[in-house]
Amino acid sequence: MEEEGTSAISLRCVASEGSSNLVAALSKREIYGRKSFVSRRYLADIYFSKLKCVTTFTVYNFEKSKWEERILPTEPRDYLGQKGFVLGLSSDSTYLVMMQTGPRKSTAVIYFLLLSPELAIHKNHIIIRDYTPLTGLRVYFHPCSRFVCTYVYNESHFQSALRTGLSEASAFHVYTMFPNCSICLHYSTSATIVVRGKPKRWALMKKNYLRVHSNGFILNTGVTIVMVLFSSSLPTQLKYKQKVWRVIRQQTPSLSNDQRHTIVCDLGEEISVESSMKHDSDMAGLSYKLVDCEKEEEYCDPKFACGLRKPFFVSRHVVCIESLIDRFICVFIRTSPPFKGSVYRVTRDYETDVNHVDRDGICKLVILCVSELQVPMANGESTRNAFYLFQIQVIWSVFEGWKVGGKCRAIKELRPEVVFNVSTWYPYTRFPVDKDEYSYYIPNSKVAHGGDQRRILSENEDMEVILNLDEL
């Protein structure tokens, strides 16, 4: 092990056992690509008792009329304590994610430590409220760390849905933190949960309800698809249920942790905004709020002063899944010869997944649904009710809405006793979701069930963090 005089963080190449520079290694990897480092695996040893922590925060100097970056050096701090644990590394291996419950009751704090050879820079963190031992979370990273999305859910609701075989009402929360501007947006909405099949012990969340892409995130609530975008200009106006807000920073008395600026949307969701830095509101006396651009049109102009370095717009539009199903199936049975004379009655059950999102914001939704049709008998004089399993593919732009190119097909007819059993009619062993660079996430499930915190492996297995926990 290292002697007392050595640095808190050291980087070694496994092949040569020689020391290296973490910043230089990561910088070179970003320039020449990740593939060049497949044969060179780096180990980072971190000693918390020797760790020099630096808190940085941004303030506006009214005397000089400019933004200033201030540094507040602190003593080595134990971010673990008795109620904390390490979650993992970011997708680019530059952030170490740690979590600590308390000190306030029913709260948890997620710290994002930016690693360098001599310092761990603690600039941003998020506070999760109403945290319980059954709270599950997944931390998603933008590949360039433009933003970090933390998806929070209640694991007990999934266990209940698995046990009863019925749908369960729940709530989803998404905390989106922006490192460059140190802002945290909290989005919460109601959701409907249905568990298909029998997940493993640590895999109750087999389904990817949150999908992160280059411009925001897509949240699957079970009955709707919520698309949230972040931009520096006013987004294109859609025909759908779209809302646009602008984040402004103002010189007002700071709000307490329980008094964040919160707005309630037209569909019952809640969105709040606050600083992701502890010292921002405490030392600068600043707070954040969301302004409805439809009600206050002057904020639609990006040049209008907002208190931030760059304009920050947040837009949300909602896609109703049942409306899509009704539209596609009605057109399909009207144009498909095998279903000539049939009448669409109702959809009994369905499952939706965001299959893929490309760089242009075009996403493919895959819907599997059980629909009831009134079909003519062979004699043509009477009808019967039949249940069919359909697959619908919808092409949707996060910027423009519905796109031409979707399709629908009938997979098979189902027996009536299968229709109302959620674990039997679903035809696939895994959900139809394509993995990409945005799919990587850090869960808290394995740590909560006693996983090893001493060795943390990066996504591409080119870096491994070894934590010296014996000294704590």
Describe the structure.
Strands 18-19-13-12-11-10-26 form a seven-stranded antiparallel β-sheet. Mean pLDDT is 77; it is low at 1-6, 11-20, 34-40 and 201-205. It has 472 residues and is mainly beta. Helices cover 11% and strands 47% of the residues. Among the domains are: 1-124 and 444-472, no CATH class; 322-419. A hairpin with a 4-residue loop joins strand 4 and strand 5. It has helices at 22-32, 155-164, 278-284, 321-335, 416-419, 445-448, and strands at 9-13, 19-20, 42-46, 52-61, 66-74, 84-89, 95-101, 107-115, 119-129, 135-141, 148-154, 168-178, 183-193, 210-213, 216-220, 224-231, 241-251, 261-264, 270-275, 286-292, 313-320, 343-357, 362-376, 383-397, 401-414, 441-443, 455-457, 463-467. It contains six helices and 28 strands.
What is the gist of this entry?
The protein has helices at residues 22-32, 155-164, 278-284, 321-335, 416-419, 445-448; strands spanning 9-13, 19-20, 42-46, 52-61, 66-74, 84-89, 95-101, 107-115, 119-129, 135-141, 148-154, 168-178, 183-193, 210-213, 216-220, 224-231, 241-251, 261-264, 270-275, 286-292, 313-320, 343-357, 362-376, 383-397, 401-414, 441-443, 455-457, 463-467. With 472 residues, it is mostly beta strands.
SSE layout and pairing:
Elements: E1 9-13, E2 19-20, H1 22-32, E3 42-46, E4 52-61, E5 66-74, E6 84-89, E7 95-101, E8 107-115, E9 119-129, E10 135-141, E11 148-154, H2 155-164, E12 168-178, E13 183-193, E14 210-213, E15 216-220, E16 224-231, E17 241-251, E18 261-264, E19 270-275, H3 278-284, E20 286-292, E21 313-320, H4 321-335, E22 343-357, E23 362-376, E24 383-397, E25 401-414, H5 416-419, E26 441-443, H6 445-448, E27 455-457, E28 463-467
Parallel strand pairs: 3-28, 4-9
Antiparallel strand pairs: 1-2, 1-3, 4-5, 6-7, 7-8, 8-9, 10-11, 10-26, 11-12, 12-13, 13-19, 14-15, 15-16, 16-21, 17-20, 17-21, 18-19, 22-23, 23-24, 24-25, 27-28
